């Protein structure tokens, strides 16, 4: 029953409305109008004011026509760079950008699939439970929009997050915790040619620390990475300052604690060895989540996938999503594959077939 032409056109229209992080307002206004037109009550919360964005999270609710438990669906409205002036086109059943930008199927494919499914349910008088929608801001770079959601406003006790790059059928039931590990190393400047022995090289401290550090794939549940190093100046000056920006992730909160502390200790030990200082801050961005493979919410998705003839499967993710925040907030949530391939790259694309199947899957979830 999904109207493929309408769905594809809506998606193409959505990706052409710029919505980089902090500037989701124009796109949010467009979505609010669409949702209001099909019967949702719509409002924006105050997350935009807290996060310096030009809009808040969009909250929409549709009364049910059947005596069923309410359902919550979630997507995010912001996109990564380069995402201004996206020009989509279809080639052999695949939607792509022109190669100079991302496509923004992450997460406008999820939004489009959801809205088309709801339209189809309403047009065909399909009995449905109360439907709640949360379209978040500032998801990219820290899940900040979802962190500022008031979960008490939702009746639903389970949420379907439409934001995984897997093809429809994928059910993400585990996601990692993440720590940001930021470091400032202080050494002592000196002339590198005249009196280098009087200096303490902050770069040498950083190099010593990193050489002793467990990084990249630590084990099947844990990763860590040094993302950026800044510091130093002229080649004739022993560098006195270095800033390091790193992260660690794990599906196990205790393993993450251990990895982050290990990284901190490496920096502090190296600084002590050379007579410098290391100031390390560890910020927990979000905690890990795990949903049982036989949980009712997983069975709901399995049933929906089987009803439309696609194979469901559960998996874990190495990336965070709003799913982490919902689970931490007391709403059981899973992240579902919507078909967005190679997100955050200029090669990002989505098969029309996957976009349609994502919408068909959501329709089956709505049917219950």
CATH-defined architecture of the largest domain: 3-Layer(aba) Sandwich
Tell me about the biggest sheet? 9 strands, mixed
Strand/helix succession: HHEHEEEEHEHEEEHEEEHEEHEHEEH
Give the distance, in angstroms, between the N- and C-terminal Cα atoms: 16 Å
Query: Compute the gyration radius: what is it?
Result: 23 Å
Q: Report the average pLDDT across residues.
A: 97
> How many strands?
17
Strand proportion: 25-35%
- CATH T-level topology of the largest domain: Aminopeptidase
CATH H level, superfamily name of the largest domain: Zn peptidases
Helix count equals: 10
State the oligomer: single chain
**Range of helix content:** 25-40%
- What coarse outline follows from CA principal-axis ratios? elongated
Structural domain tally:
2
Secondary structural class: alpha+beta
What are the segments in which pLDDT stays under 50 over at least 5 consecutive residues?
none
What does this structure look like?
- With 368 residues, the chain is an alpha+beta fold.
- The protein folds into 2 domains: 252 residues, Aminopeptidase (3-Layer(aba) Sandwich); 110 residues, Alpha-Beta Plaits (2-Layer Sandwich), CATH 3.30.70.360.
- Helices cover 33% and strands 27% of the residues.
- The protein is built from 10 helices and 17 strands.
- Strands 1, 2, 3, 6, 7, 8, 14, 15 and 16 form a 9-stranded mixed sheet that branches.
- The longest helix has 22 residues.
- The radius of gyration is 23 Å and the shape is elongated.
- It starts with a helix and ends with a helix.
